[in-house]
Design goal:
272 residues, Arc Repressor Mutant, subunit A, 2 domains, 9 strands
Length: 272
């Protein structure tokens, strides 16, 4: 068992995201911590001053508005500047969805640094989180909600290339479709959710999925319907509505066009 696995034995990751602790400190000149490992994730955000962060044989020189990520089981060392010591806030957290959240923020063990471009919103939400947590105002849902707000501000500055931005749009579009296919959604709803033009969304789908977003939505609905026909006792009409089709005739038409067989025929063929 490696160090990270051993440390995780002490941590419950059943929740998607959990805040463990947070705080604020005005450091004295040359104040340092480490080298040491931590059992969970930590993010430090520099409010003022300067300092150094050492990890993976790399030294990062940080200033006001910068932040750094500490990942579990990784040896790190950080030190305040001797002449202009930093003041920072920190949050300690973990959870089953943390790696995904951090990835969406462009953060990882290999890329642990970020710069705040939120025009004060990140700092404000971070202060609110720390105040509420230390004063016991609210509950775990309050803290996790505010923690998500904090991450949303890091997410603003993330992606460093058009390729990564495009991949992010595609992932969000797929997530939106997979979570909303049962409703009467249109491709314009997907584009609106992403705050992009419908034409651009079409180009992204053709580039990454080799299919239009409209056809992807229909195909996804049909695949879900196929599974329900095989594994449930729902009536054809129930399946049609459950998969986002307006009525049974429309469902039958699309199903036969895609599978070359009617829903009823497909169900009959799967009965042993």
């Amino acid at each position: 068992m490696n160090t990270i696995d051993a440390l995780q034995n002490y941590i419950s990751l059943s929740n998607p995201l959990t805040l463990y602790h947070c705080g604020h400190e005005q450091c004295k000149p040359s104040h340092s911590f480490g080298p040491a490992i931590r059992p969970h994730y930590l993010i430090h955000y520099v409010l003022d001053g300067r300092g150094e962060f050492h990890v993976n044989k790399t030294v990062y020189h940080l200033k006001k508005g910068d932040g750094f990520l500490i990942t579990p089981g990784v040896t790190t060392y950080y030190c305040a500047d001797q002449k202009d010591p930093w003041e920072y806030c920190w949050i300690g957290f973990d959870g089953s969805e943390v790696t995904t959240i951090l990835h969406n923020c462009g953060l990882s063990q290999a890329e642990p640094i970020f710069t705040d471009n939120s025009k004060g919103a990140l700092k404000e939400d971070l202060f609110t989180l720390i105040h509420n947590f230390t004063e016991g105002i609210g509950n775990e849902f309050t803290y996790v909600g505010q923690l998500y707000l904090f991450f949303s501000h890091i997410h603003i500055r993330t992606y460093k290339s058009n390729i990564t931005i495009a991949e992010t749009y595609i992932k969000k579009a797929l997530d939106f479709i997979h979570n909303n296919y049962t409703y009467d959604i249109k491709i314009s709803d997907v584009a609106k959710y992403l705050s992009i033009d419908r034409t651009y969304l079409y180009k992204l789908f053709m580039l990454y999925k080799n299919i239009s977003p409209q056809q992807y939505l229909i195909t996804y609905r049909l695949r879900v319907a196929q599974k329900l026909l095989k594994e449930s006792d729902l009536r054809i009409t129930e399946i049609a509505y459950s998969c986002g089709f307006r009525d049974a005739p429309s469902f039958n038409k699309h199903f036969k066009k895609y599978f070359n067989i009617t829903p009823l025929q497909y169900r009959s063929s799967t009965v042993s």
